[in-house]
Specification:
18% strand, 2 domains, Arc Repressor Mutant, subunit A, Rossmann fold, 4-stranded antiparallel sheet
Length: 178
């Protein structure tokens, strides 16, 4: 569970205490704006396994979650497999049947972001914010071009259509079983 300390009706620390008192033994990471040492001690004392202060980088959050899973026996892997497609998030490499797919850094970052958010459509604006640190021209068709190139490379390599355009909402990675 990822818990914020500043919940609207009950403090996050109290939620954690109640879970632990009820015998719940899943991993808990506190994600909060409260960064003083007293809050950290209180959160860990309540039963949290890790503590991350906002603002944070999404990559750090993912790595902390994977570390929790490894530490407690879940062996989190940065390698994702979809039929013949293998994506290694750590090595930034996509392969089909052990043959590398030649992706640019932007194409791989789009693939990774769509994968990690595959439960929902991702808008062009959200992809732009993820790819570019500075304020970027949001009316540009660069995202459409990059997604189009990525889609073509994946379809050629995998013989599968893995990126769907969701009309009016953006793009979504489809698992081959969908």
């Amino acid at each position: 569970a990822v818990v914020d300390l500043g919940l609207p009706k009950i403090e996050g620390v109290e939620v954690i205490r109640r879970w632990r008192k009820a015998g719940r033994d899943f991993h808990i990471l506190i994600l909060t704006a409260r960064g003083n040492w007293q809050d950290k001690v209180e959160g860990m004392d309540a039963g949290a396994d890790d503590y991350l202060v906002k603002p944070f980088h999404v990559e750090e959050l993912f790595e902390r979650i994977k570390a929790l899973l490894r530490r407690f026996g879940g062996q989190a892997s940065s390698v994702l497999k979809f039929e013949t497609l293998t994506i290694d998030l750590s090595a930034k490499q996509a392969t089909v049947n052990d043959s590398a797919i030649d992706l640019t850094a932007f194409e791989f970052n789009i693939l990774e972001y769509l994968l990690l958010n595959s439960e929902r459509p991702v808008s062009k604006a959200e992809l732009t914010e993820h790819l570019y640190e500075q304020d970027y021209d949001r009316d540009s068709n660069v995202i459409e071009v990059l997604v189009g190139r990525l889609r073509k490379k994946l379809e050629t390599a995998c013989k599968l259509s893995l990126i769907k355009t969701v009309r009016g909402q953006g793009y979504r990675f489809l698992h081959p079983s969908e």
